[in-house]
Design brief:
The complex is a heterodimer of chains A (about 110) and B (about 120). Chain A contains no helices and eleven strands. Chain A has about 110 residues and is mainly β. The chains are: A mainly beta (about 110), B mainly beta (about 120). At the A-B interface, strand 4, strand 5, strand 9 and strand 10 of A face strand 4, strand 5 and strand 10 of B.
Chain lengths: ~110, ~120
């Protein structure tokens, strides 16, 4: 079992819809969770961080964390074609020092 | 302000050559990380510095890989006797610190160096 898992996709949604991206992790003691967006040929860009159970909203993005179930999700409201990218979930695992452990990423396609 | 910068952006090496990849972190950022990203996969940790001290090098795949940050700012990742399996994008990230408030742990990535070994 991988330490951080994501569905590779592609996840295809129509423009204006809500895109829901999910991530599960193996280390129950993990405390820090991040979502990065990566356009093709570019480097990861931090879009959300979340540390406590519940929801955190920033513009069209909402991160949701459920530590008991060991999952973190990212919702993108009013999806735009410009949101088409790979979304990487990253976790600072409890026993892995200060590094980030990444999932394989979910490719999102928003169709006009 | 300026973000993390990396050079060169692209590097083509013949198998067996040595290469050096440079990372210039965000000014004032204490922590610096190197990751390797293969095509279609998430980044994988290589090594981590706090100031000039290399505190974790558990992700370096072999003793051909060496990293340094002698003055606590710019870092260099060196790969000796490159092999085809070293072909990947090498990403550098920095964060303000690793202690203190959570926000200061956020890691910001540079543009990466794409290494191709022929």
């Amino acid at each position: 079992q991988k330490e951080v898992e994501q569905n590779s996709g592609p996840l295809s949604v129509p423009e204006g819809a809500i895109a829901s991206l999910n991530c599960t992790y193996s280390d129950r003691g993990s405390q820090s969770f991040f979502w990065y967006r990566q356009y093709s040929g570019k480097s990861p860009e931090l879009i959300m961080s979340i540390y406590s159970n519940g929801d955190k909203e920033d513009g069209r993005f909402t991160a949701q964390l459920n530590k008991a179930s060991q999952y973190v999700s990212l919702l993108i409201r009013d999806s735009q074609p410009s949101d088409s990218a790979t979304y990487l979930c990253a976790v600072k695992l409890r026993d892995a020092g200060n590094m980030l452990t990444f999932g394989g990423g979910t490719r999102l396609m928003v169709k006009p | 302000g300026a973000g993390v910068s990396q050079s060169p952006r692209y590097k083509v090496a013949k198998r067996g050559q040595d290469v050096a990849l440079r990372c210039d972190p965000i000014s004032g950022h204490v922590s610096l990380f190197w990751y390797q990203q293969a095509l279609g996969q998430g980044p994988e940790f290589l090594t981590y510095f706090q100031n000039e001290a290399q505190l974790d090098k558990s992700g370096l795949p072999s003793d051909r890989f060496f990293a340094e940050r002698p003055e606590g700012s710019v870092s260099t990742l060196k790969i000796q006797r490159t092999q085809q399996e070293d072909s990947a994008v090498y990403l550098c990230a920095s964060s303000f610190t690793i202690s203190g408030g959570n926000r200061y742990n956020e890691q910001f990535f540079g543009p990466g160096t794409r290494l191709t070994v022929l």
